[in-house]
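Box 3.1 — From sequence to structure: SusC/RagA family TonB-linked outer membrane protein
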Amino acid sequence: MLAQSTLKGTVVDKATGQPIPGVNVNVQGNPGGTSTGFDGNFELSNVKNGNKITVSFIGYKTTTIDYNGQKTLNISLEEDTNQLKEVVVQVGYGTVKKKDATGSVSQISAKEFNKGINVTPESLISGRISGVNVVTGGAPGARADIRIRGGSSLNASNEPLIVLDGLPLSNTVPNGSTSILSTIDPNDIESFTVLKDASAAAIYGSRAANGVIVITTKKGAKGGVKVNFSSQVGINTVANTVDVMSADQFRELVNTKGTADQKALLGNANTNWQEEIFHTALTTNNNISASGTLFNKLPVRLSVGNIDNPGILRNTSFERTTTSLSLNPVLFDNHLKIDINGNLSFGKNQFQDEGPVISSAIGFDPTQSVYDTNSRYGGYFEWLDPNGNLPLLPNRNPVARLNQDERRATSTRKWGNVRLDYKLHFFEDLRAVVEAGIDRFDSKGYTQVSTQSALGFQPHPFSSPDYVNLGNYSSYTDALQNKNLNAYFNYTKDLGKIKIDATAGYNYQLFQRERYQSGETRQPNPNEDVITEPDINLQSYFGRLNLGYDSRYLLTLNYRRDGTSRFSENNRWGNFAGGAFAWNVSEEAFLKDNTTFSTLKLRVGYGTTGQQDISAQYDYLRRVTLGTIQSQYVFGNTIYATARPEGYNENIKWEELAEMNLGIDYGFFNDKITGSINYFDKKSTDLLAEIAVPDGANIRNQGFFNIGNVRTKGVEFSIQSDIVKSDNLNWNVAFNTTYIDQEISQLGITVPGFQGYLAGDNIAGGQGNRILINSVGYAPNSFFVYEQLYDADKRPIAGAYVDRNADGIIDTADRYRAGKTAPDYTFGLFSTLNYKKFDFTMNWRASVGNKIFDNVSSNLGYSDAGLRRQTDLANVSSDYFNTGFTFEDNGTQRYLSDYFIKDASFIKLDNITLGYTFDKSLIKTASLRFTAGIQNVFILTKYDGLDPERFNGIDNNVYPRARTFLFGVNANF
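Predicted structure (token representation):
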């Protein structure tokens, strides 16, 4: 019998010499083993001469040592860069190596993020991941619209579920804030993991129908304390403005077509109103962080950041100050891992009534001066009636609106998560994990209109002896709270070539909101109100099983049972499941040592997810609500509040999504070239849509119903390559493209002649006109228009449209669908070039097949738009020179002409950045990197409007995206 000994030792990082906690130390072929503690020390018993000792840890190369009676071992582990790339969060409640993932999962880490001044986190991944479309706005801190594989619903939310350090976030934003991610400093983010197909996302169940984005923030690192400081300055400039008539062109129009009264209204100025409301602004972005291990025991990271982002529209701004703290201790000989994340964010916003302000600047008479010394409205020019009264219809002076209408808000957001991960001492294959998180988001703000503003409350006309301008004032508060609890068990076991990973648990989430609005306090009977919204409660039971055989055959099965308070007891619970299989062909004997096909994995998956995220909290209940001060009865001297029954739908239920995914992951030449190809086919059924209700069918005229199906098919392709990799020169290029085909296949019970449900907001021009429609056989949000007729010179003929149904009448039956807002293809290209200490990055995006409605030209592109009245003038879109349109024909048809549907395809260079690094040559204690770059560099497009990239497909009074010239410095100590 061989003597058995106890082996002691220490495991350290080869590069830094710092101890590594949590390293697995085992006798090869034997069960059990041990792991290192905080100080990197271990003690392994029952070791015999001739045994092989394996030392392994995620992110490091495994080391095998022959045991020949040594009493102690000092082991240095070397980082495995290939293995580090493989670690991804796959589906909630766990991690998996990329090579073992069975679903469609994409990850992008900090070093791969888009460069430049990224005010909000969404811009870090714009154009970087196939199947993920990110459209940012122009206003400071504006939310981005994110769609994964085109979304899945008509009226329910199409936003993906965002999970931040284990805490699922709400998509609801309080008044006075811009987005759910605007409070997060992008400098604190370590990685984004996107779960795109239903087999990967099904474990998130009810909230995963639109995909899942898992955000992981930076944590404390092993070793000594490291300090990072970054500072950026950006000069935001106006890249483009709307093309309208100049002062001289407008004078010629009025003198040619105007009446004597209108000619007399012309001024002597030459005012470019868009130049008056836009300006160049300076953005600053600073962040400092410290991370390391305190007392060689406690990994910690502390970060403080501030960004001040004035908008290019005057008197708009976004400021954010953040503090983030992460503690990650490991206790009880590596059996209890604790992750504590705490975050505090303060925001300051200055808003404007952007649409009306920009609309006024586009349409205001360019022959008028900004100022009028005789004006009672703060010295600003305003249109007045001959008797001095303020008319109702003309545009107000846009500069006056900016300076006399103050809209400010502040917000405080506190969120955090505590995670306890306990590996049972008596059964180390089993872990018990509990996560508790809270997200509290409070805001308050006000709108104050000057007593000298034309927008102020003026109860009597100026001609009255009682004239007074009281201005306006209103305020509000808003408080949102999101509580989350996860509790689950995870069992892992290696049985020779078979690997088992099983998870089962419970999730509880509660959303609460209370808000206050003062009403207009300077007006009679302000509509003051406190609104306490009904709580939304989600509860779930979930499970997942991962089986692997010899790293070649991989199977994932998951299930989730979700309950929501939005539906009745009969429809409350939904069951969602998914399964995926992957074959690692490159692990087979015939390919294992093949350097040409270094990676080849085939994947197939199918899963179902659900949707319940609609604006109506308790639409299934029969409710009675009390009326406001606007709906009261007076009997004698007593005022009585009214009580009115609300519409309801007791049969409302889950919208469901079923999705199939086929995928290939590939790598060539020892993974010098890598990428993936995915085909997906998903079908949404029982769509939750807010639709019109026939008279008499309900006690409301509009509400939520389950009405139809949408089918979405597509292909995703991505490839990246280290084209050059040497000591002095490295060049990496990544490219992705996505094709999506989406079609509504059913819209419930309809009647003959039914063309679909109109969608979207009203467009500018006419009354109540909507130009988007959801129709069977077409893509969601298709343009619904009249077909314009043209003359021999290809100019549109005013009032002439195609009688498509040949009934001799031009009416709504002749409208047709002319394209859609969403693109057919999207592309992304990212290139990084490093030469010695220089680095150069650039990021391109492209979109093909999407259309846009030029609402500026449709609303202002005819002469009567400027000569509508005898008492004021308004500017006209330059498109008038292309059409010669004079008047509104048949009331609304001109507004809905397909002439204004334009090709919105584009190629855009999002940013370029040049950097240079000084490796402790300037400062001995720090490495410095200096950068310079441009964001929103240029765009190539046929569209002659402001910007073809408009998420809702309607170009009207849009806050333009700035072109930013940036300079930065980054220091690592």
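Summary of the box: Residues 247-257 form the longest helix (11 residues).
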